[in-house]
Every structure is written in C-alpha cells, then in structure tokens.
Specification:
The protein has 262 residues and is an all-alpha fold. It has eleven helices and no strands.
C-alpha cells in the first residue's frame, strides 16, 4: 500500500482545495468566503474527518457491501437528531421511511450481533460521524454559500490530514502510480460534497439523507463486478426494500409540497 488512511485523506483534500481555489478564483466566488460561523465549520469538519477515517479503516477489512450497509444507518441518526440540532420536524412518514430503509440495510449486511468485529463497529461509528456532518452542513447552508462551505471543508480536512499523517514523523510522497488515483479521489470527493451540500441547501436533512441509501445497491454491484464479492437473493431483496423506502420518502415530500397553497 502506497499511503495510509491519513495520507490518502490529506492528499485528497489538497486536490479538492486546489480545485476550489481555481474554480472559485475564476468565477469570483472566493469573495463569498467568511469566518462568521467558524464553530459550525469546525464541528462539521471534525465530524466528517472522524467518519472518513473510520470508513476507510472498515473498508480495508470487511466487504464493501457491509461497509456501505452499516454506513447507511446514518439517515436514522439524521432523522433522530435533526429536530434537536436543526429544529426540523420528524414526520411519521419520514420515520417510517427511515425504518424501512434500515431494514433493507440489515438484509444486506446481516450482522452477527454476538460477533461484532472492530471494523464493523468502525463502519457504524462512521455513520454517526457522517450524520453529524450532514446536520452541520444543513445548518451552515442557512447562512453560508456552497463556495464558503467547500473552502473551509477542503482546507480543514487537509490540515487535519497533515497533522494526523505527521504524527509518526513520516509522510509518504505520492508516487507516479498513485498520483492519478489521488487526483480522481479528490475530484470525486469534492463533487460528492458539492452535490450533498447543494441538496441540503434545498431540502430538509431528513429528506436528503435517506436518498443516500441508493448508494448501497450500487456499491454492492461494484463489489461483485470488480472485487469478486458475492451477491445473493437477500442482498437483492434488501436493495429493493431500500429503493422502496426512498420512493416513500420522495412521494411524501412531493405530496406535502403539492398541498401547500401557491
């Protein structure tokens, strides 16, 4: 392995930060950056950094589909914590959709509660970190632009990664083989954050996060095609249940908007 987890996250964030500076400078969006809500930026990035490191640790040790399934308990945490952190209402339909989606996750991962390994616990911990990240991002979108959020996200993540990478006094420089992959990871990660932050600026966190369940069947297919990980009937059924939960959540949101007076 060319790099440890901290180094991968550091280089990914450096690439993302460079993209933010280039695009923001070219469009004049860098003037939108402010320091007025630094405590929420710090909280958002600490939660995300912790979640990322736990996720990468689990990813190396247990099947991809299991990592994703445990990570996707995150919408449950979002639904439960959104009323406390954001003041968003937890409707009955949202709660039901989250529970249905989580049951689909259980069908895929089928955890042995009597034999929970550290990687499985790490993946579950990552879910809590990502939930906190989403909730604080939603809070920031009420006052900050996406450019501002992306700037502090990539800068702080790069600093956190640098500090953690340098604890042992050794930071491996990127090799010619790893540079394209680190660049791809950085660009893809920034794109995902941009899309998620934009979605959270437009809709409640309890609506946006269950949509993230859709990544599970996609990643299960990738794990089967590229890594030879098995896919069975229960995994397919779990994916169908997850799709159903998202459909219920979207339908309920559409119905509420249609019922509002124009």
């Amino acid at each position: 392995m060319d790099h440890d987890t901290f180094e991968i996250l550091m280089y990914r964030s450096v690439v993302s930060f460079a993209i933010v500076l280039i695009v923001g400078g070219a469009t004049g969006a860098l003037r939108q950056i402010s320091t007025r809500n630094m405590r929420w930026h710090v909280a958002r990035n600490v939660a995300h950094f912790a979640g990322q490191n736990l996720w990468f640790y689990a990813l190396a040790l247990i099947p991809l589909a299991q990592v994703m399934a445990l990570e996707f308990t995150s919408p449950i945490w979002v639904a439960l914590l959104a009323p406390l952190i954001l003041g968003e209402r937890l409707t009955r339909v949202r709660a039901i959709a989250a529970v249905i989606g989580f049951s689909g996750v259980i069908m895929v991962v089928r955890p042995d509660l009597g034999n929970l390994s550290p990687p499985m616990l790490a993946a579950a911990g990552a879910a809590i970190g990502f939930a906190g990240s989403a909730l604080f991002t939603r809070k920031l979108t009420r006052t900050e632009t996406i450019t501002c959020i992306m700037f502090w996200l990539t800068l702080m993540q790069a600093v956190f990664g640098l500090v953690c990478s340098g604890i042992d006094g050794q930071i491996a420089l990127p090799s010619a083989r790893s540079v394209p992959w680190l660049a791809l990871i950085g660009a893809a990660g920034l794109g995902a954050h941009f899309c998620l932050s934009s979605a959270l600026a437009l809709a409640p966190a309890a609506v946006v996060m269950p949509m993230d369940f859709l990544r599970l069947p996609v990643m299960a297919v990738i794990g089967t095609l590229f890594y030879g990980e098995p896919m069975d009937a229960m995994m397919v059924l779990g994916a169908a249940v997850i799709f159903g939960a998202n459909w219920l959540n979207i339908r309920a949101g559409t119905s509420r908007r249609a019922a509002l007076p124009s």
